[in-house]
């Protein structure tokens, strides 16, 4: 099984993800969490790694806030789009771009980072645990992880609401190779377990698009966006709505002292 490279559909990715209410809502909820996380981490500029950062939408905003951002992505096309966007926004001086797989990022970093962004990547990676271990290794003690992943439980609910009973019965296999539908939707319990096993302390869980994708009247996604965002914000950090999100955003800290070492 190979990890996904978006060189072939970079334009489609941009249009279908960021150019829709799906992407707008995702970014709005994500930045509510990130703003709170940055506040807790203090006023100083941070060394940020955006691992699998795509065309750099989140990384560029981090750079605009004064942080030093390294963006890596396996896709040459995505890196080019991110570089162009950074130039346009006037923040390329605060950014460093690396074309490499997340699995290889450690060899490109001179020192550990303070904050890792790992958004909508885990569901495209064939072997998730080794990748999470690599991210752990490049994060300083006391640093933070912002992890957003495609939720297998939300996918199941979405298909049931749509009446795709037979598809759910056979385990929801991916039908086409070259699509924006993730290769490896992740069960939340698995992700939380992997993080805790490695040593992270999970500090927050947020459902992303806990209502948006389930609306019967799809025009309301656009026509009632402000009201929808208000209600998403109200409920997205409490169960059962966290677990119904199409994505789940997890924040986690690497302890100042490696407790695993102390236990040995």
The major beta sheet can be summarized as: 7 strands, mixed
Q: Beta-strand percentage?
A: 15-25%
Report the order of strands and helices.
Answer: HHEHEHEEHEHHHEHHEH
**Global structural class:** alpha/beta
Q: DSSP helix count?
A: 11
Principal-axis shape equals: globular
The largest sheet has its strands arranged as 3-2-1-4-5-7-6
Using DSSP, what is the number of strands? 7
Average pLDDT, all residues = 91
Poorly predicted runs:
none
Based on CA atoms alone, the radius of gyration comes out at 18 Å
Q: Fraction of residues in helices?
A: 40-55%
Q: What does it look like?
A:
By secondary structure, this protein is α/β, with parallel strands linked by helices. The protein is built from eleven helices and seven strands. A seven-stranded mixed beta sheet has the order 3-2-1-4-5-7-6, sandwiched between helices. Strand 2, helix 4 and strand 3 form a beta-alpha-beta unit. The two termini are 35 Å apart. The mean pLDDT is 91.
Keywords:
globular; alpha/beta
Secondary-structure map:
Layout: H1 10-18, H2 21-40, E1 47-51, H3 57-64, E2 68-73, H4 76-89, E3 95-99, E4 113-119, H5 128-137, E5 139-150, H6 152-161, H7 165-169, H8 188-198, E6 201-208, H9 220-223, H10 225-235, E7 247-253, H11 259-263
Question: What's this entry about, in short?
Answer:
Helices cover 41% and strands 19% of the residues. It has 264 residues and is an alpha/beta fold.
């Amino acid at each position: 099984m190979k990890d996904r490279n978006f060189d072939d559909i970079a334009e489609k990715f941009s249009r279908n993800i960021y150019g829709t209410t799906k992407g707008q809502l995702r970014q709005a909820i994500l930045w509510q969490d990130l703003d709170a996380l940055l506040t807790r981490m203090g006023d100083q500029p941070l060394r940020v790694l955006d691992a699998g950062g795509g065309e750099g939408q989140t990384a560029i905003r981090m750079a605009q806030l004064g942080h030093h951002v390294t963006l890596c992505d396996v896709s040459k096309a995505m890196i080019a789009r991110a570089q162009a966007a950074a130039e346009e926004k006037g923040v390329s001086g605060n950014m460093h771009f690396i074309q490499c797989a997340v699995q290889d990022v450690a060899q490109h970093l001179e020192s550990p980072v303070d904050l890792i962004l790992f958004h909508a990547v885990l569901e495209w990676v064939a072997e998730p645990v080794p990748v999470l271990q690599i991210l752990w290794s490049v994060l300083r003690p006391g640093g933070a992880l912002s992890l957003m992943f495609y939720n297998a439980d939300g996918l199941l609910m979405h298909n049931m609401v749509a009446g795709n009973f037979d598809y759910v019965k056979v385990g929801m296999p991916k039908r086409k190779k070259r699509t924006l539908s993730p290769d490896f939707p992740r069960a939340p319990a698995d992700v939380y377990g992997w993080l805790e096993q490695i040593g992270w302390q999970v500090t927050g869980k947020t459902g992303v698009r806990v209502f948006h994708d389930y609306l019967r009247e799809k025009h309301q996604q656009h026509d009632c966006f402000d009201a929808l965002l208000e209600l998403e914000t109200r409920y997205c950090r409490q169960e059962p709505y966290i677990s119904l999100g199409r994505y789940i955003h997890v924040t986690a800290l690497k302890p100042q002292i490696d407790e695993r070492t102390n236990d040995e």
